[in-house]
Amino acid sequence: MLYTALIAATLFTSLVSGVLSMAGGMILMGIFGLFLSIPTAMVLHGVAQAVSNGSRIWLHRQHIRWGVLFPYFLGSLVVLSAFISITLVPNKGLVFFLIGLFPFLAFVIPQHLNLDIEQPLVAFICGILVTTAQMLAGASGPVLDIFYVQSKLSRYEILGTKAITQTLGHLIKLGYYGFFLGFGTDQLPLWLIAAIIVAALGGNWLGKMIIDRLDDQVFKRIGRAAILLIGAAYLAKAGQEWGLF
Asked: How far apart are CA 167 and CA 176, in angstroms?
């Protein structure tokens, strides 16, 4: 039953990400975090999300905005170097708290700040913040979304460009937890990992069929509402982990 639930969750959240370009990863990390140890959850989540986001690169390859990627990559490498030097592994309470907190960050950022991902310095800062979020919480979609809200990109450009940045982040997370720290998925059968990969690809294929029916405004409005509801649920879970209620 556990393995079936993990596969079904991967399919569903990949579909969500394929439609909204957000929310799916944070839902999946929360589910994996409930049933698995944090290091194992990070590795399995990294596999699922790298495949899910990686397949969206191909689906939306004609709409990728390559100009934002180089400074973003530089920021990501800075964070990876820092984590390798301190070898930090977060606990479950912190993971759930950060996943829940991220969707609300947009409300505390001053409106006059022009956080447009198409600006090189903003893209570099985005790489630092988003990769840090992925390493600590496993998911970072709501943080990344802050840098796309003020851009002029279409839904297809957002899907394609975010797919590359998110794939990079999950590969970095997978390399850190799976190889550098030596936390693999030895307690999980190989067929489960294969099924997770197939489910991630299947969810993206279904999402592509739905996204063609949405317009840009509906696409952004649904996504914002979804991540706020999910964030509130994970903040409550963090409070439970810490014994606050």
From this structure: 14
The pTM for the full model equals 0.76
* Token output for 219: 């696409």
Q: How many domains does the chain have?
A: 1
Alpha-carbon dihedral of residues 149, 75, 138, 94, nearest 10 degrees?
Answer: -90
Distance between CA atoms of residues 114 and 108, nearest Å: 14
Q: Buried (b) or exposed (e) across 175-201, using 16+ Cβ within 10 A? A: ebbbeebebebeebeeebeebbbebbb
pLDDT tens string 77-125? 999 999 888 888 888 888 889 888 877 876 777 767 777 888 889 889 9
Q: What share of the chain is helix, strand, coil (3-state, %, to 5)?
A: 80, 0, 20
d(CA 12, CA 6): 10
Structural domain including 228 reads 2-241
